[in-house]
Write a structure and sequence with these properties.
The protein is mainly alpha-helical and 343 residues long. It contains 19 helices and three strands. It has a three-stranded antiparallel sheet. The two termini are 30 Å apart.
């Protein structure tokens, strides 16, 4: 419940958009809301979030006078809610970034299973129950295992790589993940047991473990040149789906129009526009030099932005600008200097 309250602010926010952000539903509308609410990094942080649980939690926060309804579907913090939010002292997901951690669960699973496999093989144990039952994870680790056996002293090399990452993690995260690993004659500690050790609630413990894994992936990405084995195992960084990435390439690099891409790919023009809006939000560095409209239209949009009038699209729509042009420009202004390509 406390984490739920942290999603809201003094300005009204759309509850459904917040819910879809946590689940990872990537419509341009949800992503635009996340951009405006400064919570894009939380994208897909809880893909299994129960919709009824979310709704009931919001209703309880209203009943407790921490939130108020401003209009249907929109909520803002009350004075009491703002005070309570300021007093909340819980672990936060400071390393997680859902913009590029699309395969976060796969990353966790393959690393966990690979540690178990290497540990068992190192002790010449071949009969054990795999920690992860997911077939995609098992196939990936099996394929990787056959690859790394061509490296000299591969068992020790894997240990060295894992040690390198753990040494770069904050000490509390390194200890936490080490306590979660399963290997030869070692079973990782369950979350409920860790809550007692760390004196945290179960939700807080879950966030702490999630952020530890996120930090693990960030460090692995940073030091990938020194991690030949793990670099073969970890899923690639992926900001955009293949479909969206293809649209960006065709539009930006091949200079095809939306209509041309639509005809070539047999997709609706609205789908192509959705792709471009998503890319403008998730990867602003890819489309920062793209301008939609005539010089006069762009000047009109800039004047609306400078005068804080861009939130109301109706006058601009009446002047002949399309919703897509206005929204694309709006996104470009919101993302300017807000996202670094190296993140």
């Amino acid at each position: 419940m406390k984490y739920m309250l942290c999603l809201f602010a003094q300005q009204p926010r759309r509850a459904n958009a917040l819910q879809y952000i946590l689940i990872g539903k990537r419509t341009s509308s949800n992503l635009f809301a996340a951009l405006r609410y400064h919570c894009l990094s939380l994208l897909q942080i809880d893909p299994n979030l129960n919709i009824n649980y979310f709704k009931n939690s919001v209703d309880q926060l209203v009943d407790q006078h921490y939130l108020r309804i401003t209009e249907k579907g929109y909520y803002q913090l009350t004075a009491e809610g703002q005070l309570y939010q300021e007093q909340i002292n819980l672990p936060q997901p400071t390393h997680y970034d859902g913009r590029w951690m699309r395969q976060f669960n796969l990353m966790k699973n393959v690393v966990s299973l690979s540690i178990q496999v290497i540990s068992q093989v190192k002790h010449q144990q071949h009969n054990y129950v795999p920690l992860i039952n997911d077939l995609q994870t098992q196939w990936r680790v099996k394929h990787w295992f056959h690859q790394i056996k061509h490296f000299d002293n591969w068992q020790q090399l894997f240990v060295n790589e894992l040690t390198l990452i753990l040494s770069k993690l904050p000490a509390k995260y390194a200890d936490l993940l080490a306590n979660r690993f399963t290997g030869y004659q070692t079973v990782g500690l369950p979350l409920r047991q860790l809550t007692t050790f760390y004196h945290l609630s179960l939700p807080a413990m879950q966030v702490m473990v999630l952020d530890a894994w996120a930090a693990f992936w960030q460090i692995a990405r940073q030091y990938q040149q020194q991690l030949p084995l793990l670099s073969l195992l970890l899923p690639p960084v992926q900001y955009l789906t293949d479909n969206v990435a293809q649209t960006v390439t065709q539009f930006r690099d091949n200079h095809l129009s939306i209509a041309q891409i639509s005809n070539y790919r047999h997709l609706q023009p609205s789908t192509i526009r959705e792709h471009l809006l998503e890319a403008a939000i998730i990867t602003p560095f890819l489309l920062k030099d793209v301008h939609l409209g005539t010089a006069q239209q762009l000047q009109q949009l800039q004047e609306a932005w400078d005068n804080n009038q861009l939130c109301d699209y109706h006058p601009l729509l009446s002047s002949g600008l399309s919703f897509f042009q206005i929204r694309f420009f709006h996104i470009q202004r919101l993302t300017a200097n807000d996202y670094n390509k190296t993140n």
